[in-house]
Write a structure and sequence with these properties.
about 325 residues, TIM Barrel, eight-stranded parallel barrel, 11 helices
Length: about 325
């Protein structure tokens, strides 16, 4: 199927709220009781039951988008579906190609359902880090990162995906490599960085410097930047400078815990959905004037995104 928005992403006009999903692993593991090896949600695409679980998950967010008159960015369940993680889980290259393609096809089917409801749905191929999401392990120079992520990007380019999103990037060089691979493939890209409790990347680099580094290296190719996998309290103090105009997306954690604490946690910390929604609205009003793509990350589910939509949708009318 062809992509309806690859040449012009609708979320870039800024005049409409776009929702995304919450923490997919949070929901599948803690709420649905589904075991995920290495948080690899793409493994569900191997069975009808697994695909049904994914459809149920995404449809909950689609219902919210329709209810609040918002668009939605549908992120594929492929955060772990790159070469190294696939090999670790026993997937040959052809198997990885299948699940990446199947993940997009599933979302295209959901997009068709939304078309009847006149809800704008952007399909995004989700790309995760080569190493750990919380810390810059397996650090690569730019060209190596570009080569590593190219196969997954090219698979998405051959589908109906409108764009790719690099989620939980924790150092700039990998983000640059993905952006360059997306440019090579003719795909729009969003880069989402994660930060520690001090508002800096796990490398210690300030967020603004990382965004500037990617823009300089790619000719400002990313359509926009996002923040994910951190609580608003962790980064709101660092949102200063002209670079904040490049930030359109936010997928915050429900929990105020650090990445190290979350990594060791055995119980879900879902935080306060209403409080989180209010914090998103405050960020949009005071610190992130172009913020219009909103969802959640660790600890969040449809309840959090519902509160985010309730608090923020009035800001777009």
């Amino acid at each position: 199927m062809s992509s309806p928005y690859r040449k012009a992403l609708p979320q870039l006009d800024g005049g409409r709220l776009f929702l995304t999903d919450g923490g997919i692993e949070t929901t599948l593991i803690f709420h649905e009781g589904i075991a995920l090896r290495d948080f690899a949600a793409f493994e569900l695409l191997r069975s009808r039951e697994g695909e049904a679980a994914l459809r149920k998950y995404f449809r909950a967010y689609c219902a919210l988008a329709a209810r609040f008159g918002a668009g939605i960015v549908l992120e594929s369940a492929t955060w772990r579906a790159s070469t190294d993680w696939g090999l670790r889980l026993g997937y040959a290259p052809r198997d990885l190609e299948y699940v990446n393609r199947r993940a997009i096809a599933l979302l295209e089917g959901i997009r068709e359902e939304l078309h009847e409801m006149r809800t704008v749905a952007v399909v995004s191929g989700c790309i995760g880090p080569r190493g750990d999401g919380y810390q810059p392990s397996s650090v690569m120079p730019v060209e190596k990162a570009r080569a590593y992520h190219r196969p997954q990007v090219e698979i998405f380019a051959g589908t109906g995906a409108d764009m790719v999103s690099a989620i939980t990037m924790n150092y700039a060089e990998e983000a640059i490599g993905i952006a360059q691979a997306a440019r090579d493939a003719g795909l729009p890209v969003a880069i989402s960085f994660t930060v520690e409790t001090d508002g800096r990347l796990p490398t210690g680099q300030p967020l603004g410097e990382a965004i500037a580094q990617v823009d300089v290296a790619t000719g400002s190719y990313p359509g926009y930047y996002m923040l994910n996998c951190a609580h608003p309290d962790h980064f709101k103090g660092s949102l200063k400078g002209e670079w904040v105009a490049r930030v359109r997306g936010l997928r915050a954690n429900a929990s105020r815990k650090s990445h190290a604490e979350l990594n060791d946690a055995t119980e879900l910390d879902a935080g306060d959905p209403a409080e989180l929604g209010g914090q998103y609205a405050q960020l949009r009003r005071k610190l992130l004037p172009r913020l219009n793509v909103m969802g959640g990350c660790c600890g969040t589910d449809h309840r959090h995104v519902e509160q985010i939509a309730a608090a923020c949708s009035p800001l777009f009318h």
